């Protein structure tokens, strides 16, 4: 690690069920405006779950030439759209001299699921010779990072993290480490997911993970609520431009905040369930605090993983108690999945973005649908309405199937 190299965020981009840019996504989180509704991407009438958080009016050709857009799976289209927003926001210029010091790390849980499902249907109904010749490059999960490098001209470190719902938080943490140790000066990082397909919804239904509150989609995602019955699938993603601090200051960049801490651990317990008691999750939080050089009492706000599943929310509560001790009672905690649904591999990035905007605006978004607190979830989850609060240091939690635990600490620059 290069001594003294610090990492700041100078650009943001997002597409979510709340809107196709940062401003509308953030305003929806703060207002508690739900982006969840009936599934329109396909006929879901034969499924137990018929609701999701879909993007509205997303046209990839707004961001990419038609020929290029058609070569890419939807998850890549969404990520690249967010990345273009973030790079424009940062005002980053890429040329022959700077390109080797710039790269991309992107997280996704499952990659090109829509392309995969389309190819299987084509093979079954029309035969193997009718499969799109671009199918493999549309399916593979590394294509969001690879295409980002192609699009912007980066020739530095480029990689993909695939740790389920922790993927884009891992991507941000790993990209931060590259800048810290001097391997890069600018990294484009984040993640995206588009899991709203008939196959994926049916598969999650089979595992009893999804909410079936089809008659009330806007309140179906109920993190930390006694009446929660599973998560709600969302689609979208976010991109962050991470930059070495002195470089950013020298060019007069707008700085949203600093990535101060990165912690990760593994439960080594179960393929889907978190380890009871939250020990593994707590370790990730404790490592992130130590990396940031902060005490638990320094954190003002935690954007919780908060999926609205019975096991996750209770375990995360226990983990926060374990990691923060007596300081847990003073934390403002919320789950923005209450309005976006769960963006799976894209969740960590869009929630890190929410932490940075909470710092900027001095407001904590609510857990909008929390009305009946679960006695096992006994912390301050900012129910119902946003809260004005001076925010200096935040933590964003992301936990994934397979026992992957990631915590990021972000602070005022």
List the helices and strands and how they pair.
Layout: E1 7-15, H1 22-31, E2 37-38, E3 51-52, H2 66-70, H3 74-90, E4 102-107, H4 113-126, H5 135-139, H6 143-152, E5 158-161, H7 167-180, E6 186-193, H8 198-206, E7 236-244, H9 245-250, E8 257-266, H10 279-292, E9 301-303, H11 310-324, E10 332-334, H12 337-340, H13 347-361, E11 363-364, E12 387-388, E13 393-400, E14 404-411
Describe the structure.
- The chain is an alpha/beta fold and 413 residues long.
- Helix content is 33%, strand content 18%.
- The protein is built from 13 helices and 14 strands.
- Strands 5-4-6-7-1-8-14-13-9-10 form a ten-stranded mixed beta sheet, with helices on both faces. It has a two-stranded antiparallel sheet with strand order 2-3.
- Helix 7 crosses helix 13.
- The protein is globular, with a radius of gyration of 20 Å.
- The mean pLDDT is 97.
